[in-house]
Design goal:
The complex is a heterodimer of chains A (448) and B (612). Chain A is of the alpha/beta class and 448 residues long. Chain A is built from 14 helices and 13 strands. Chain B has 18 helices and 22 strands. The chains are: A alpha/beta (448), B alpha+beta (612).
Amino acid sequence: MNSGQTIISLATPMGTGALSVIRCSGESTEKIIQTFFKKKFIPRYAHYAKFKKNEIVIDDVVAIYYPAPNSYTGEDMLEITCHGGPVMYQLLIREILNIKNCRLAKAGEFSERAFLNNKISLIEAESICALIKAKTEEAALAARETLSGKFSKELFEIDNNLLKIRVQIEAMLDFSEEDIETKELNVIEQYILVCKNKIINLINKIEKNNLLHEVSKLVIIGKSNAGKSSLINCLTGEQISIVNKVAGTTRDVVSKMFSLKGIPIIIFDTAGIRETEDLVEKEGKERALKQAELATLILYVYDASIGINNEDLEILKNLKIINSNILIIANKIDLLTKDNLSILKKEMKDNIFISIKKNIFIENLKNKIIENLNIAISNYSPGIIQIKNLNHLKLAFKEIESINISLSELELIAEKLKITQVNLAMILDNNDEDRILSGIFSNFCIGK
Amino acid sequence: MKTYDVVVIGGGHAGTEACLASARCGSRTLLITQYFSTIGQMSCNPSIGGIGKGHLTKEIDALGGVMARAADAAGIHFRVLNKKKGPAVWATRSQADRDLYKSFIQKQIKSQNKLEVLEGEVVDIIIKNNKIRGVELNDGVMIKTKQVILTAGTFLSGIIHIGNKSFSAGRIGEKASDKLAKSMKDLDLLMGRLKTGTPPRLNGNTINYKGLIEQPGDDPRPVFSFIGKESDHPNQVKCYIARTNEKTHEYINKALINSPLFNGLITSKGPRYCPSIEDKVTRFSEKNSHQIFLEPEGLNTKLIYPNGISTSLPEEDQQRFIRTIKGLENVEIEKYGYAIEYDFFDPRELSCFLESKKINGFFMAGQINGTTGYEEAASQGIVAGINASLKSQEKDMWSPAREDSYIGVMIDDLITQGALEPYRMFTSRAEHRLYLREDNADKRLTPIGWKLGSVSKYRFDIFNKKQDMIDKEMLRLRKLNIVDSKKNILASDFLKRPNTSYKNLSNYAPEYKLADLKIGEDCAIRIKYAGYIERQKLEITRNKKDEEMHLPDKINYSEMVALSMEARENLSLARPQNLRQASRLPGVTPAAISILKVKIKAIKNNSAQDAK
């Protein structure tokens, strides 16, 4: 028995292991198979297959199709085992969510469906309730974590603005006979415009800053020959990196995405800051600073055999003004004598001493990077929550964008603003329509 | 002992619609009221309709009710409110001549088949094994029935306040039903207390209208009933607008100490949207003037209803502040304003049929369910009347849905959320506002009313004829090509644009023979909203699934530890009938809904096993 919408979720925890498993359950399962694998799957048979978007292979996966009713949930199901790490599974899940009637699963929803389809015995019902509760709390916690800081502040601001506009408009609709001073329509138009811009800005910010993937940004800075390129190669290893282009600087900067111990990271290739250019020179410096500003963490590399000189200190000083998250790395310690190294270590206590060439203390570096990225590992990937949030923001924008300001269509404006706000409410979890009437009564003297 | 299928207690707006509907649906019905002469009395504002309320009135009419026709027969001033906005929020409002209104209603009651009226006071409702058996009158007479509809309005333990005086009454000059209230208290039903108020009535001959703003009725004049016409209306009059000033507010502020609303005498909750003038002056002190609509109470009376200054100040203070108002300097007060506190029953103990969940055959409608307003009362009355009749005939009862009607929105709100303040209809309460319009109330409800037996053949024939005409015109509009800015466009697309109207079509297609303008405009409205309504329909189908999942009576919410405390408390109190109602309760999150689904299934499986 298939029920309406097809639910998608990650079945394995984030940030562990080399493989991730994505589960889909519901009517659109076959559609998913057709769309991304372009062939029919034999039931309950492990297929080695290429997950393709259009003609581009996104990942080599192992997929198993369980037609209803012989599956865990009793619905059509698909399990995709892809390469590990959030980058990959987020990409795949995002693609799958583009299929009609597909959505992310709510906490405990697979078990819920299994139970509703008589796949799990009655005795387990209570434990499923407990499971749903536990998972919901966990998910809420993760959501709050992702919502922390600027993103949620902006979202609440938009929500509040929308509420204010809706209070005005609903008052105009329900209490036009009252002697109340609602705002002029052109003022309301301005308010709506501000809201609209805020929503699109937020969407852009999330997309551009790659907040979407909750990807940490590493920017590697250092003088020529400090070992920047080899550091990138050493960190990204043999991984096939996904290359994307970020516009914004004078020249397109190429960035590489990879996962470090399961943590998605985007690293800015120093190809953007050409070796031949002098960093102290204006143009090169500006470009480096621009990237550094956006970085989650800056890795500053210098050649330990030369040591830190005034030029390094000058660059570091400028960097610290715009971004204080800097990890200073002394490379090429293999070129130092034991004594010199211990002198340097005493002088530069907070530095990390490595040799890329001789693979010394690289593991330590990786751990330090992760420690500094300070990412909480949770079963509920913030990245997935962000996909959901972005979807709702886009729907919200679509609505508010379609508003046509005219008194003769005030009720349509009201309808569109309501849908806009409902979409925000899905992110903020505060769908309280009672706020409108309360807002009207506290703002206006009603009572003809 | 006399026996009836349905007994209705109370002859206000809820009671009259209830007894008429019950009799129309074929049940032998008895209306018991203290005085026949007060049947259909408008105890507060002599007006019908308004935003949200006009919608309700048209819905009652579409179901065969009497309110809209009475408003047409008694209306002395008609307007369509919100006319500058879209048709979904257009709302008819009329000023009524009290006497004409009352006599129209009384005539309907007298001529209705299967309906009898008894003057008397009910002192007890007889219940055995949680089933209605009959009612007892104050003279000891017993009447046998299995269905009772209680529409006692403000009469249950009503207390009127004017200044520091307070006394027991149902309305001014009528005694409260204290004995019935007392016996109702033994029934173990959740009760609460609410308050409402009314302004003083003025002698129109002592008002100086010069310098007041005139407010004429609309031309063309709207008609309330789907089977009514303009010629049903009596002579028309004008309303006027006066304003309070700083001096008025000064007097009111000084007198506050004597207001029972402010000196602690009245503690029960009044409506936020219908505050007393005392409230307005204190809560919005920055406003130095409030408007007052001076509305005539009828053609043959000098009485004027000053809408906007409900008050419970002492008589002398009422007189003092009113005389500071321009135009009212020499006004004589005929009846003083007052506040009234009354008992109401927590509507969360009602089913969606307006029947008590605890007492079989006991229906309640109107103000005793925590609502305010004639239209709100009448629409509950018609639903209770239809259902009591259906029940007496052992037929399935009817519950209006949120997506079908404002009546459905109201009943669903009441039985799930309860009444924290007197409940009044607003269009913003309806999530399907674009569909729940005045113009299509007949399309939404008349076929249902016909099936239930509450709509006459006469009305149904008129309805079908109109729908045929609309359907035909819709077809024509979908085929009609017009030229706008040198581009060909279908008329049905053209009409979707803002600020277009059916009438304008002839400017673009001169050879097109317009249909009846009313029919044409109805078509234009349908076309305008079609896309939005399509989208809302999708939402409705999505909701249907949850609606079909019934929450069994057995569920003990307080034991469900997986739910939050808030959800458990609200579910226990409201005991929603299905998942969709549950989802509207505070604290019932999507996760809680999942848990409820699992629980429903578990209970089902359990009983299936028991059956084996």
